[in-house]
Write a structure and sequence with these properties.
Layout: E1 9-13, E2 33-37, E3 48-50, E4 53-56, E5 77-81, H1 87-92, E6 94-96, E7 102-105, H2 131-141, H3 156-162, H4 178-190
Parallel strand pairs: 1-2, 1-5, 3-6, 4-5, 4-7
Length: 202
């Protein structure tokens, strides 16, 4: 069984990401959370290898509690941190080196963000999430809700309010465990099991 302490995260961050505005910045330096910031080098160089764990992608099979097995050997949950428009460029400089040990997954549809939209250059998708929201939602589905990750997020309470399938800060509330949380989510009309979510990282 995977222990709470073995749950690690790898954040692959675009070089243009504004650290001051990034919702993941409060997690920097925490045990079990690593950041790899891509440099503004030519396309194709300095590829970030992903040899095990779970890589959150768009249009991938839906993340489920059973996927926690991919983290049991210390494999991380891998999250791309970039604006919606630049996610493809970051992924171009990443490589899954062992497809057997790496699961590509997406989040369920319909998760509501609490992050205020401010982009004037690109239209964000209606189902867009802040990076910290995506990370927390994944931890809940995997059975290891990390409430401490939301501690530095200004809109944490509103995020929970808009997604009542998420566990309360003092426990699981009426959900009981990760599978029940997913089932509760499905009961809201988003499908059971959930299908896919297109999300944006902030």
């Amino acid at each position: 069984m995977m222990s709470r302490g073995s749950f690690s995260v790898l954040v692959v961050q675009d070089h243009k990401e504004n650290r001051k505005k990034c919702t993941l910045t409060p997690l920097a330096g925490r045990p079990g959370i690593s950041f790899v910031r891509q440099s503004p080098s030519p396309r194709g160089s300095q590829t970030v290898p992903v040899s095990r764990g779970i890589l959150l992608l768009l249009d991938a099979p839906c993340l489920s509690p059973e996927d926690a097995r991919f983290l049991e050997d210390g494999g991380p949950l891998v999250l791309v941190d970039a604006t919606w428009a630049r996610v493809p460029r970051v992924l171009e400089r990443m490589a899954v080196t062992d497809p057997v040990r790496v699961a590509t997954r997406s989040l369920p549809p319909g998760i509501a963000t609490a992050y205020p939209r401010t982009s004037k250059l690109y239209k964000d998708p209606s189902a867009g999430l802040a990076s910290i929201e995506a990370l927390f939602a994944a931890s809940v589905i995997l059975g290891h809700p990390r409430h401490d990750w939301l501690a530095g997020y200004r809109w944490a309470d509103e995020f929970r309010r808009r997604n009542d399938w998420l566990p309360a800060e003092d426990g699981w509330g009426g959900s009981g465990d990760s599978q029940k949380a997913v089932d509760s989510y499905g009961s809201h009309g988003y499908g059971s099991p959930p299908e896919r979510l297109r999300y944006v990282h902030r």
